[in-house]
Design goal:
This protein is of the alpha/beta class. It is about 45% helix and about 20% strand.
Amino acid sequence: MKTILIVDDHERIRELVAATLGDIGDYQILEAKNAEEGVTLARESHPNLVLMDVTMPGAYDGLEAARIIKSDPDTSDIYVVMLTAKGQMSDVERGDEAGVDGYFVKPFSPIELINKVESLLG
């Protein structure tokens, strides 16, 4: 079974994404409410995919968490896709620099998200 970690400080977004993914496949869903918790869960559980917000409270944001995950040899193979309200070109470029595998601006299309998840996880 493939594992997906959803990292967002808004519980409703986590629930919405989990419900969307639950409709398309048999995924184990993990949740984290901030970037630090997301990095910890990624290291402990080694999910196949992390879906992460950019702007969250805490010591660092989702892009820094993505950079940490992608630069650690133990977690660098985990796919990271950003789900965020920050859609400026400079934000997308920061995502590219962090090594993310996708970038969706909220509100995002559930169908596009499903297509991306399926393309990454097969």
